[in-house]
Prior knowledge:
By secondary structure, the chain is mostly helical. Helices cover 85% and strands 0% of the residues. It has one domain (2-56). The longest helix has 18 residues, at 2-19.
Amino acid sequence: MRKLISAVVLPLAAIMLYKWRYKLLNLVLGNDSIRRMSVRAAMGMPGIRSRLLSRAFRS
């Protein structure tokens, strides 16, 4: 029974997150402290950091 509930709830949650992804992103990034933490975390990842910096400082 528990597996059945998980098999139904997890896909539904994934669909809802996908459907409302931009609203959720705006809600989360609307908070200054959460936005600062997410930017700091993203800039700590070498792949993301190099890609962003190369695009920002193109000549």
